[in-house]
Amino acid sequence: MRLATKLRDVFYSMPIVAEGEAAGLKIFSRGADPDFARGTYELPIQETIASLLAPGNVFYDVGANIGFFSLIAARRVGPHGQVYAYEPVPRNAAAIGRSRDVNRLSIIHVFTEAVGAVTGDAELLLARHLGGATLAMESMPPDMSGRLMVRTTTLDDSIATHGLRPPTLVKIDVEGAEVDVLRGMTAALTAYRPKVICEVDAATKSGLDRKAREIIEFLATAGYAVSSLPAAYANDGWRVEHILAQPMMT
Question: Which residues of the chain have pLDDT under 70?
Fold first, then answer.
């Protein structure tokens, strides 16, 4: 019975994505938002990522959760591209690895680290919602379920330390630490001029506007033009917005 249960868990936790940009790929999604397996998760972001990537490009997935967008990017950039997924929650990082392996997408590289403004160590506050973990210095998740010390890195340090290929597109979804991630990649923004997709969220519109304004001002100083992407959520409760930043012509 135990073996049968384990086999059933593996089968049901590795569904084939039904639609969207990841359609036909398998994803280890047990306990995650069911929209991942349906393929309907944040459709405007799926479409934007797919439209901005081409074969041979390089995608950085900062706050990768279970790797849904990493799978989409890996499909788009192909065998000559690279995908670097950063996810500090160990069970999520492990899920990315399982999805990578079952889909034979060896170009996905997983870093079990939090990305921010400095390299070192920090306390991560875990949440029952798999994508809701936050660094203790940023905020406290409303459904907090535990604490964990994690390694932190900056993208500039990670690129230099691991000899990573320069980014074409960076997606940032880090539950309040967005500006810290940007501060830790100033060299990459200056040297490589990647496009950036950044999620901003808050309980109120005023809170969302404040966060977005800080991000936009930082990116403007770095020589980027910023626009809002189509809404991925109804925003009738917790508010979520996605920003696309593209380097201005010089």
Answer: 1-13, 126-146, 250
**Which residues 6+ apart lie within 8 Å of 124 measured at CB?**
88, 89, 114, 133, 134, 135, 136, 147, 148, 149, 150
Ordered by start, the domain boundaries in the chain are 40-127+138-247
CA–CA distances in Å: residue 120 to residues 64, 85, 162, 198: 20, 18, 16, 23
Residue type present at position 174:
V
Quote the CA–CA distance of 140 and 49 in Å, as a whole number: 29
Mean predicted lDDT score pLDDT of the chain: 88
Q: With a threshold of 0.70, does the pTM exceed it? A: yes
* CATH number, span 40-127+138-247: 3.40.50.150
d(CA 46, CA 72): 7
Residue 13 has what pLDDT?
61
**Residue 140 has what pLDDT?**
56
CA-to-CA dists, residue 181 to 30, 128, 154, 240, 244, angstroms: 28, 24, 7, 18, 15
Nearest-angstrom CA–CA distance, 194 and 244: 11
